[in-house]
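Input (formate--tetrahydrofolate ligase):
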Amino acid sequence: MVKIYALCVHLIYSGIVQRSREELKAIRETNPGLKPTLAIIQEILRLNEDSRVHGIFLHLPQSFLSKSVRNAIKPQKDVDGSHFEVFTKMFVAAVVICQHVVRSSRRWIQEQQYQPWRLRPLKLQPLSPVPSDIEISRAQTPKPISQLAQEIGLLPEELEAYGNTKAKVHLSLLNRLQHQPNGKYVLVAGITPTPLGEGKSTVTIGLVQALSAHLKLNSFACLRQPSQGPTFGVKGKTAYSLSLNFFPIQFNLHLTGDIHAITAANNLVAAAIDARILHEATQSDRALYSRLVPSVNGVRCFSPIQMARLQRLGINKSDPSDLTPEEIRAFVRLDLDPEKVTWQRVVDTNDRFLRKITVGQANTEKGHARQTQFDIAVASEIMAILALTDGLGDMRARLGRMVVGSSRNGQPITADDLGVTGALAVLMKDAIKPTLMQTLEGTPVFVHAGPFANIAHGNSSVLADKLALKLVGEEGYVVTEAGFGADIGMEKFFNIKCRTSGLTPDVVVLVATVRALKMHGGGPNVTAGVPLPKEYINEVKA
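Output:
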């Protein structure tokens, strides 16, 4: 339904405009800075930018209907002819008002239907021989990300800019476009690759640029965010720097900080595990209870996550003072076995000397040392959760169910048991928003999540795909990529991502290269960092 707001000044001003002149005079004497007209204009400007408001009707005393107030309304939202551009007189006939309401409603309905984007592609200047990535990047000038967002139908309040060339997109877009039919869903996968990769990302970007910039079809690419590990490793830049980004160094490094957020959340869990093991080994039940349920102004109370733990333990009590010593012991002691901790710390760098370490060697840890290791950040279970979640509530629930180890009697211990789920959700609240970027031709790309296919499911996020499918409309195309080869990336796309999202692709594009076919057909091994054997460079005539 189209919402028409009868605009009166809110809060104290709504009362002020209805009072007598004597009352208004008395109020102004006590508050000389009071300016109702300014407040009215500020409220009009706020409603102008509110996408939920589709029309504004001024129902105010004549003394407040100054020219500046009437002309503050956007012409598109003026339904009673107050704006000079729409109608110069305030008091219009009821029929004219209804006509404006109908027009405003019709305009809003048309905006919700599919329509081609007004995308202005950037012109490419092919160079020969092909220059380096950084030269390609510097040769092209990107359009402002706010301009790209406007071209594809995003509202200003749905965009959270990170500089001038990238931005986060709010999930509220899904609510606004919930009745919009999805576009066509295209999956790009590859045959079993060589160690050098076979070009799935290049095909994905090339396909989207062809559809958007040349065929004038609404098209979106959805890609994984690369890890810094392979970027600085032998394989080199994992990112699609030649065809995706104007600043490949930026794209391959921090981007909008999603991987840093995952690192912080993951290592918070690791710190909580070791702290819990130490405190349980060195303190009594009563001391632990006082730490977990502290007295504030003489009152103890359980937090919601603690109440959930009590319910899992079968303890149906809400007053901390009612627990028996046995119940207190069951509540405070996870009894984590240090040898059965499965949660590792992470860092987004290939640092081989962190693959096996000993922690807890400081004197303050009282001899509670144990062997552990660092994994690469994108191998964290939190990354897999980010790629599969469909909202903040779902993400928080999934984070709480993560198993971090086992107790000495074999019971699984979760993040909820540690009591860190809320903190993890707060750390990840911005990372859940997909990042909007652009190709060299100025077409839109969502970059979000980057789980590995050999340990997780190897696909970009469900949320990015869902947002893109709504934005392109039913005649548009969303091209998403399954990482690694078809044997794991594509299979996990169908078996895991599709089952989680409820989406199914309309077509699959399979990337196959002569190099990969030769190697898997009995050719010499292809090794990263080593020149290709001559069999892959020269073709042998039959």
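Residues 1-20, 238-248 have pLDDT under 50 and may be disordered.
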